[in-house]
Design brief:
mainly beta; 2 helices; 15% helix; 8-stranded antiparallel barrel; Lipocalin; disordered N terminus; 194 residues; 10 strands
Length: 194
């Protein structure tokens, strides 16, 4: 009889801990495990990339009702790194992101749709260089559960999307240098300790 009681208790604990991650949970974005990569076409010859690091913000994820989920991300534009120092300086200047006047970009979700099989569509507003425009991200939930080292609820997503830089007043060399910016994003976030 003891083994049955023990098994039942273990099963109840597993269900209870699973429910903790099924509830609506607020997470803090982990900048050390989050990357935002932008790429564009250069004169039809190559597709350079730049990384925007040190993103911060909060996301609320509701497994039972993904439509109730939200995300807000702030990106310090000074963190831009194209892996070419001269290009970094150019992109941070007035002809492009004008980082001195507009030090951060912000993405705020307006709608989340569940598409099935851990896939979501997140619509939101991107504020960049003083201009706000709608952007849609196609998102995959990579995983959700207890972080094995931090022992707190954790969650991770990958996302892709695109926007036209000219919509934000960044139109130098368009169309010779591509107008469409492709985004690839990976995000890890952690909840506070219970």
């Amino acid at each position: 009889m003891k083994p049955i009681k023990h098994s039942l208790f273990a099963a109840l604990l597993a269900v209870a801990s699973g429910n903790a991650f099924a509830e609506k949970t607020e997470y803090n974005i982990d900048p050390t495990h989050t990357m935002i990569i932008a790429s564009w076409n250069h004169m039809g010859f190559s597709n350079p990339m730049a990384n925007f690091a040190d993103a911060s913000g909060k996301l609320v994820y509701d497994s039972a009702n993904p439509a109730a989920s939200t995300v807000r991300v702030e990106i310090p534009m000074q963190s831009l790194q194209s892996f070419v120092p001269a290009l970094d300086t150019e992109l941070k200047g007035k002809d492009y992101f004008d980082v001195a006047q507009f030090p951060k970009a912000v993405f705020t979700s307006t709608q989340v749709k569940a598409l099935g099989e851990n896939r979501l569509q997140v619509q939101g507003n991107l504020q960049l260089r003083g201009v706000t425009r709608p952007v849609t991200l196609n998102v995959v939930l990579n995983g959700q559960g207890e972080h094995p080292m931090k022992k707190v609820p954790a969650i991770g997503f990958d996302a892709v999307g695109s926007f036209k830089r000219s919509d934000f007043g960044i139109d130098k060399f368009v169309p010779v240098v591509g107008d469409e910016i492709q985004l690839r994003i990976t995000v890890e976030a952690h909840a506070d300790k219970p």
